[in-house]
Write a structure and sequence with these properties.
The structure holds two protein chains of two kinds.
Chain A (H helix, E strand, L loop, with lengths): L1 H7 L4 H10 L3 E2 H8 L3 H13 L3 E6 L6 E6 L8 H7 L6 E4 L5 E6 L4 E7 L5 E4 L2 H8 L9 E2 H8 L3 H14 L2 E3 L2
Antiparallel strand pairs in A: 1-3, 2-3, 4-8, 4-9, 5-6, 6-7
Chain B lengths: L5 H22 L6 H23 L6 H24 L5 H15 L8 H22 L5 H13 L12 E4 L6 E5 L2 E5 L3 E6 L1 H6 L5 H15 L7
Antiparallel strand pairs in B: 1-4, 2-3, 3-4
Helix pairs in contact in B: 3-4, 4-5, 6-8
Classes of the chains: A alpha+beta, B alpha+beta.
């Protein structure tokens, strides 16, 4: 949830959403060019809005990298402040990889990040990770290790505590991580 | 016309074999693994024999065939080495010393004396510097690394879980380097060490605790290289 709040408080969010509403099916580069801002500035909040279902994304493949085209869907948002603030205490959880045999990873050693988690073997589900989650998972200690706290991993990965907690919750739900205490 | 005395040939091969064994014995600090040694010596013969033959019989040299042969034999090895350096996984020093030495020695059949001997001596000097560089960083020698991995695995528990994700340790290194043996890849970056292993390797080592194994292996390397241990 903290990522959505962050996305909604970004400087260009109103301009980006307004443009996507008026021009559905555009990719981040086209939106960025029209608004004269950097594509990453456009892409990150749109990815977050997509995750929460306020924007839809369609992947178009042609020569080169696939293009992600965004369309505004809209919707309403309820924030559970109790949950939001209690999540912060999760930063002290000691975690490590679960070592589940059905989980594998696609990673980039040079960029020191995990790009995707594959659940259920090679023919299973592939979950692509954003840069924050990928960086967090790269630094998660292996199975049977002594583990590290969520905050410590987040700090080593250069992430704000909120992003580290979000990544932790995402990976715990997938069964990638286990909590030691 | 010159002919090759079979005894002289046998003697030359024996000297080459002994020399190669001695080099590997030194750079691997006495830890010899037969499988790796045989591969290294076979590859050395594939590279070394044609240049030795054409140095002795320069009149039989077909330059085009010679160049094509060496490009075919060396490009897979040096292709990988150059790729690793371009990606910043190892220093250019190692590649340039090795490549420079090999190219100088291999170009000798095309040269006349005394340039020929200068090229061979300069090539040998570069190759010696390459082996000295490898000696300085023990993990760059597969035989030493294979034995060190076995030693690290012995003290790292048994029947523990495996993950295909590499183990990342926060450790500073003087140089970036990459070492690989069957099933294990080790990358030293400026601020971290990445230890990647296959499930098969993990099984062969007795399924050790991955973090403990990585930590012990890195410590063995750092101790041997004269660097401080990580906690």
């Amino acid at each position: 949830m903290i990522d959505l709040i962050r996305a909604l408080s970004s400087e260009h969010i109103f301009a980006i959403v307004d443009y996507v509403k008026k021009n559905p099916g555009q990719n981040a580069s086209a939106i960025a060019a029209a608004l004269n801002i950097h594509p990453v500035t456009v892409q990150r909040p749109l990815e977050t809005l997509t995750k929460y279902g306020f924007v839809s994304v369609e992947e178009r493949r042609s020569v080169g990298r696939p293009s992600h085209n965004y369309t505004y869907l809209g919707g309403s948002l309820t924030i559970d402040l109790d949950k939001l603030f209690s999540d912060f205490a999760l930063k002290d959880r000691l975690v490590r990889e679960s070592g589940h045999p059905d989980i594998s990873f696609s990673y980039d050693v040079d960029r020191e990040t995990v790009g995707a988690v594959l659940v259920g073997g090679k023919s299973g589900r592939k979950i692509k990770l954003d840069s924050y989650a990928g960086r967090f998972l790269w630094l998660v200690p292996p199975p049977d290790s002594e583990g590290k706290t969520v905050e410590q991993i987040g700090r080593e990965a250069g992430l704000p505590p909120g992003e580290a907690i979000r990544a932790f919750l995402e990976f715990q739900e997938l069964g990638v991580l286990e909590v030691i205490r | 016309m010159k002919t090759l005395n079979p005894m002289a040939l046998m003697l030359a091969l024996l000297v080459m074999l002994v020399l190669y064994f001695a080099i590997h014995l030194v750079v691997n600090r006495g830890r010899i693994v037969l499988r790796y040694l045989v591969t290294a010596i076979l590859y050395s013969f594939v590279v070394g024999l044609p240049v030795a033959y054409f140095s002795f019989f320069p009149e039989r040299l077909d330059p085009l065939l010679y160049v094509v042969y060496y490009v075919a034999v060396l490009s897979p090895f040096f292709g990988v080495e150059v790729y690793r350096s371009l990606k910043g996984r190892q220093t250019w020093t190692r590649v340039l010393l090795n490549l420079g030495g090999v190219v100088l020695i291999l170009s000798s059949p095309f040269l006349e004396a005394p340039t020929k001997f200068i090229a061979i001596l300069a090539g040998l000097a570069l190759v010696t510097a390459f082996f000295a560089y490898n000696f300085r960083y023990p993990h760059l020698n597969p035989m030493w690394l294979a034995k060190a991995a076995e030693k690290a695995a012995m003290d790292a528990g048994k029947d523990r879980k495996f993950s295909p994700k590499p183990v990342v340790l926060a450790v500073e290194s003087r140089r970036t380097s990459l070492a690989r043996i069957r099933g294990l890849t080790l990358i030293f970056k400026r601020r971290s060490a990445v230890v990647r292993m296959t499930r098969d390797f993990h099984d062969r080592m007795g399924r050790p605790n991955m973090e403990q194994f990585a930590r012990k292996l890195v410590n063995l390397i750092r101790e041997e290289a004269g660097e401080s241990r990580i906690v």
